[in-house]
Specification:
alpha+beta; six-stranded antiparallel beta sheet; three-stranded antiparallel beta sheet; 7 helices
Length: 269
């Protein structure tokens, strides 16, 4: 079985890039063509925010967002900020409340402390250093990016072998922050333990999930309602970028896990 056979059932174009830390291992579709990333944008915004932390311009324990919340809470979707707007839904650190608005508040805080617009900061500290030339963030730092699967895979290679962040901060970002919090994983329902790191969703033992049955618990990344994802499995030494011309739906729930399992079976170290 070829790793992309499961995509034969789809009636819309998708672009997929499988990579390890050094090179592309497999491609499918028009991987150089920009498509919308939706919430996968948050991975770029996460990295830009963490670069500001790495450089000492922002602190993870800086007050940010609603009273009692910090940069750490906002990155981990634990500040109690609602999805888009409205009243605070819980005290910081009590629930995992996935929030576009929380990432926008984070971006406002970072921009204030680095002295430039957040989009410019993300371009200068993440997109340009990684050579992600097709990526354009238009509007919200939570969901406004578009770019190619090839460029999303460049971010995947960075996350397999980090150059922008030091090992201590990167380890904290990609391990569970505020463990044990429950919450809703959009598209997959309530999770009794809805684990996140600092801006990265952690696979752990969630079920159902958008990665594969053979994905390691250490797998991290993000998916978007544009039908996009980037997962990074550090134990397998692999990352996969997936972009779609059709929004997330039942097709993605059905196709993504077996695709991931096929990729891991073929290419995991």
């Amino acid at each position: 079985m070829e790793i992309f056979d499961v995509l034969d059932e789809l009636d819309h174009p998708v672009a997929v890039v499988v990579t390890d830390a050094e090179r592309v291992l497999a491609r499918h579709g028009e991987t150089a063509e920009p498509l919308r990333w939706a919430s996968v944008t948050k991975l770029v915004s996460t990295m830009a925010s963490l670069v500001a932390v790495q450089r000492g311009m922002v602190g993870l324990d800086d007050p940010a967002g609603p009273p009692g919340a910090t940069v750490r809470h906002l990155l981990a979707h634990a500040a109690g900020v609602p999805f888009d707007d409205g009243a605070v839904l819980s005290e910081p650190g009590k629930r995992r409340v996935y929030s576009n608005r929380g990432i926008e508040l984070l971006a406002e805080h970072v921009a204030e402390h680095v002295g430039t617009g957040f989009t410019t900061w993300a371009e200068q500290t993440v997109l340009e250093p990684l050579g992600m030339a097709t990526v354009l963030i238009d509007g919200s730092p939570a969901h406004g990016a578009a770019g190619s699967a090839d460029d999303l895979a460049r971010l995947g290679r960075e996350l397999l072998s980090p150059t922008l962040l030091g090992p201590e901060l990167f380890a904290e970002a990609t391990h569970v922050v505020f463990p044990g919090l429950s919450g809703v994983l959009p598209g997959y329902g309530r999770q009794k333990t809805n684990d996140w790191g600092l801006g990265f969703e952690i696979r752990d033992h969630k079920t159902p999930h958008w990665t594969g049955e053979s994905s390691s618990p250490a797998t991290f990344g993000h998916f978007g309602q544009s039908g996009s994802f980037l997962w990074v499995d550090p134990e397998a030494g692999l990352a996969t970028a997936f972009l779609s011309s059709r929004p997330f739906g039942d097709w993605a729930v059905r196709v993504w896990p077996p695709l991931t399992d096929a990729i891991l079976a073929e290419h995991a170290r």
